[in-house]
Amino acid sequence: MRGVLLALACVMAACGGAESRGLSIEVRGLSARAETLVVGLFPDASQSCTGVSLASVATIKAPLERRWERSSGAPRTLEFDETIEAEKVTLVAYSLTAEAQPLQYLCHVVEYDSIRGLVAVRLSDRPLDSQ
């Protein structure tokens, strides 16, 4: 479904200094067709968003990754408790249908200096100019 958006909120964990902290990612607006949500983090923005598309996003393997399954009934908050020592983090997130087909996606570089408690980003099935 074109134009379906998935809102994510990245909430800074209350630990570490300006360049060393974990993240909690709260997911809102997940498509009813999505069975799985995958969120990956690349410290130091080691993954470029150039070339990331709905067709390629499921092939990207992040060093830090969390999955949420609709069948789990768990809250859609994904915790990254690892200490992330980087000024920037590339966030790659996507949802999958029951047939494991990508439905929505996002690739966005998050700079820790810009995180002041809450960062709102969106996933979409349309190409994005992210960065």
Furnish the topology, listing elements before pairings:
Elements: E1 5-12, E2 20-28, E3 36-43, E4 64-69, E5 77-85, E6 88-96, E7 102-111, E8 118-124
Antiparallel strand pairs: 1-2, 1-8, 2-5, 3-4, 3-6, 6-7
> Mind summarizing the main beta sheet?
4 strands, antiparallel
Element order: H for helix, E for strand:
EEEEEEEE
Classification by helices and strands: mainly beta
Strand content: over 45%
Number of domains: 1
Report, as a whole number of angstroms, the end-to-end distance. 24 Å
Choose one word for the global shape.
globular
Helix content: under 10%
CATH topology: Immunoglobulin-like
- Low-confidence region ranges: 1-20, 127-131
Order the strands across the largest sheet as they lie in space. 5-2-1-8
Would you tell me the overall average pLDDT?
A: 75
CATH superfamily: Immunoglobulins
Radius of gyration: 14 Å
Structural write-up:
- The structure is a single chain.
- The protein is mostly beta strands and 131 residues long.
- The chain has a single domain (5-124), classed as Immunoglobulin-like.
- The chain is 0% helix and 50% strand.
- It has strands at 5-12, 20-28, 36-43, 64-69, 77-85, 88-96, 102-111, 118-124.
- The strands form two sheets. A four-stranded antiparallel sheet has the order 5-2-1-8, with no helix packed on it.
- A hairpin with a 5-residue loop joins β6 (88-96) and β7 (102-111).
- It starts with a strand and ends in a 7-residue tail after the last strand.
